[in-house]
Amino acid sequence: MIYLDNSATTRVLPQAADAAYRAMTEQYYNPASAYKPAVAAEKAMEQSRANLAAALGCSASEVLYTSGGTESNNMAILGSLKPIRGKKRIITTTGEHPSVYEVFRSLENTPDTEVVFIGLNADGSVNLKKLEDALSEDTALVSIMHVNNEVGAINDLDAISALVKKIAPSALLHSDGVQAFCKLPFAKNASDLYSISAHKFHAPKGVGALYVKSGVKFAGGQIGGGQEKNLRSGTSNVPGILAMDAALAEYRANQQAWIAQMRACKLRLWENLKSLPDVFLNGPTADAGAPHILNVSFPGVRGEVLVNALSEREILVSTGSACSTHKKGQNRIHAAMGISGARAEGALRFSLCPFNTIEEMDAAATALTEQVTFLRRFQRR
Hints:
alpha/beta, Aspartate Aminotransferase, domain 2, 2 domains, seven-stranded mixed sheet, three-stranded antiparallel sheet, 12 helices
C-alpha cells in the first residue's frame, strides 16, 4: 500500500505507540491524585509539556493540552473573545480549516461582533493587502492558518503579526499550526495563540495542544475540575500526551532529514505528473510551500473517481481535507484561490510523510497516468 493522505492522519510511530501502551498499563494513574505513582505520572506529563514548549519556542506555562486541533482552534477563538466587552471586529480568511471557519460563521449573528472574511492569493496564501484593508483599531482577533491544509501555502506569521500590531495593536493573532508544526523548522512564531494536533505528526488521535502567550486575557474552554490551570478541565490524557512527546522527540532528532525526504518526494511526484497533458498545480510552486503537500488537478476526470480508482490499486490519496469530505459542493479553498470548473472537480491532494519513498512516487505517478489517460477517454465532449 502507498499512503499519500498524511494531512488527514499519520501512522503512529512505534516509539509513540510504546509510550502510550506503557502509560496505559504501567503509568495509568490519574496525575491529579496525591499518591506517589500519580505524582510520577504528573511529572512525566510536565516534562512532556516542557519538551513541547521547547519546540514551540515558549515556556511550559504557556502550553495547554487539548484533545486535538479542532478543540485548540475552537478554544483559542472563543476563549480569547469571551473576556472582551463592547464592539469588536474579528478577522479570518475564506481558506481556513472548518474548525476555524465554522466558528467564525457561528459568530456572525453575535451582538457587537463584526465578522470579516478576507480572500486568498492565487497560491493559497493570505492576501496581505486585503488583511491591511480589513484591520481597524477595534479589531480584537485575527485568525490565519500557518500552512494551508489543502494546497500547502505557507503564511508569513511575522509579516502578519507586524501588520496587525501596526494597525490594531490590541488585537490578538491566532494561527492554526496543525499542518505546520514539525513540518517547518522549529522556531518561535509571532502569534499569540497557536494550535497543534498530535495525529498529524505520527502520534495518536485525540491529543493536541494550544500555545497561549503569557499575558493574553484568555477564558479557556471546558469547565470542571480545574486541570490545565483551570483553563481546560478534564482528566489529563496521559497516554496521549506521552505518546505525543515520543513522536515529537523523533521529529526533533530527525527533522532536517525528514523535511528533506518529504520535499524530495514531493518534487519527484510533481516532476512525474507534470508531463501529463492538461495538468495543473494548485497552490505554490512545487519547490515552495510546505514540504509535504502537493495539490494537482486533472481536468476531465472527477477527483472522487480517481480516488476510488487508485484505492483499488492500494494507492490512497484524497480530494482534500478529511473534515470536509462529507460536505457536497464547491471546494471552499479552491474557490477562494479562483479555481473552479473542471480544474476544481479534478483536484487531488497528495500529502506525504518522512517514510514515503521516491519509488512510491514513481509507482503512484505511473498508476495515475494510466488511470487519467484511460478515464479521459470517457470524458464528455
